[in-house]
Amino acid sequence: MDVDAPTTPEVEVVHDDVDAPAGALTDAAHDEHHDHPSEGRYIAIALMLAVVTAAEVAASYIDLGWAFLPALLGMMAFKFIVVVREFMHLKLDNRVFSWLFYTGLILALFVYLAALLTFRFFEG
Amino acid sequence: MSDVVKETVQDAVEIVKDHAEDVHDHDVHAGDHGHDDHAGGHHTSLGLSNTKLAMWLFLGSECLLFGGLISTYMLYRNRHSEDVGPDQLWDIPFTSASSFVLLMSSLTMVLAVAAAGRKDDRNTKLWMIVTAVLGGLFLSGQVYEFTTFYREGLGYTESLFASSFYTLTGFHGVHVAVGIIMLIATMGMVAKNKISGDKAETVEMVGLYWHFVDVVWIIIFTLVYLIPA
Questions:
Q1: In the prediction, which pLDDT does A37 show?
Q2: Domain assignment present for B122
């Protein structure tokens, strides 16, 4: 009888361990199936992107002085982020996907900024 | 002693049975959410789709590829002869129109993904074919632009500017062409009901690739065409 006491709980612990990931899996799988925005919202976003593109093109014909470069880069970044977050659903999806994508993006940004600095691109 | 062994074995059998039932319940549950018969096999221990995880990883690595091509162009954009450079060649209204076409193809693609999510095959196929046509239109514009530039004297080996420009925009064009092939192939598979796993997820993967091609063009359009050297 001395042997009986520790045996059963030990086996039950194993059972709990097996059970836990199955529950976690179900919850995470549910997280992936979020409610996507309506078609009307997608059309509104696309129209907004078209307007920003028109503004970009207009800015390239107007003399904005020192504000030209920041304005164009700002509009470019805005369009990029809107497409990635809204159309590619990174806003709603699991954060792991955002980490994977933004890691590549930020790595590229730093590597090539360093390369451009090495070639003294920003000096002249 | 033999009773203890018998009880332990019985407990173990019950535990295995319970676990088998749990796994079955999970598979049925996941199937209810659109993962059909592939529910268990397509997910990592994080509960995320393997396919989607791989696609995002691939897109992250593509940022490095296009980052290299864009920075190479930025370095060499001034290295051209005086009479065949961006000032003489660029046709901003024409490139703006083709940028608009590619931007709208992102809208039609997201509408195809939304239709696939609703299991609406008819609209999924419709929006995918519209996306492929818009992609083809963009690609035609690029071919026209390349032909015009070549006729005006900008060969691939003409200057460092020419080589880096054609390599960057050519690589992007190849990505668009691959996207069109993916769209047509997926559309055919949806039409013939040949997608064995989750149909909505397959369309979504094509969509992720297509949107990425669009965001790369957003950067190329601004840095290459709109910001003067």
A1: 82
A2: yes
Counting the structural domains of chain B, the total is 2
Label residue B195 exposed, middle or buried (CB < 10 Å: 0-12, 13-18, 19+). Answer: middle
The closest CB to that of A42, out of B75, B110, B221, belongs to B110
**Residue B41 resides in a domain:** no
| Together in a domain, B54 and B103 | yes
Residue B43's SS3 state is strand
Mind listing the pLDDT tens digit for each residue in B36-61? 434 444 666 778 889 999 999 999 99
Residues B81 and B18 in one domain: no
| Per-residue pLDDT tens over the stretch B74-106 | 999 989 888 888 888 999 999 999 999 999 999
Residue-number span of the structural domain to which B14 is assigned: 2-36
Q: Are the Cβ atoms of A76 and B46 closer than 8 angstroms?
A: no
CB contact under 8 A, B67 and A111: yes
Q: Are B56 and B208 in contact (CB under 8 A)?
A: yes
Phi, psi of B43 (to 5 degrees): -115, 145
Is the distance from CB of B106 to CB of B211 less than 8 angstroms? yes
Hey, is the C-beta of B218 within 8 angstroms of any chain A C-beta?
Answer: yes
Yes or no, beta carbons of B100 and A53 under 8 Å apart: yes
B64 and B97 co-located in one domain = yes
Specify the residue for token string 């297509």.
B210
Q: Same structural domain for residues B151 and B111?
A: yes
Q: Chain B interface, mutation test: which of A39, A76, A93, most B Cβ atoms within 10 Å?
A: A76
Say what the ipTM of the complex is: 0.79
Average pLDDT over residues A47-60: 95
The predicted pLDDT at position A48 comes to 96
